[in-house]
Amino acid sequence: MKGYFNDKQATDKVLIKGNLYTGDLAKVDDEGFIYIVAREKNIIKSGGIRISPKEIEDIILQIPEVVECVVIGVLDDILGEAVKAFVVLVADKPFVDFKYILDFCKKQLPPYKRPRYIEFLSTLPKNSSGKVLIKQLK
Q1: Could you tell me the pTM of the whole model?
Q2: Per CATH, the architecture of 43-137 is what?
């Protein structure tokens, strides 16, 4: 990439010393494969620790009664940001509540990655292409 068409300011933000900075966070496995794990602007910074919302979403989505889930960081006076999950359940599953999801997360996530808040919704707000509208949830 040589830059954004007619947008030097945007180009200067992503092209630094010949390197392209996409804003994606990735990990490299033992074989050298690169996996995109999150967008930097979506990372939750809680108590000085960087947390990938996708990792938490993937855990919560393992619960059979969960249809959809999105995790965000919300302002917290002590931690800076706290983990909040928005969850859509299969209809008629009243036994799935905050404690049920938190207990499930306790088995698979360290304490700092567990949701402090969980809000149940009938649907997640999405744009016309199906992307979750995070800003509407904040």
Answers
A1: 0.73
A2: 2-Layer Sandwich (3.30)
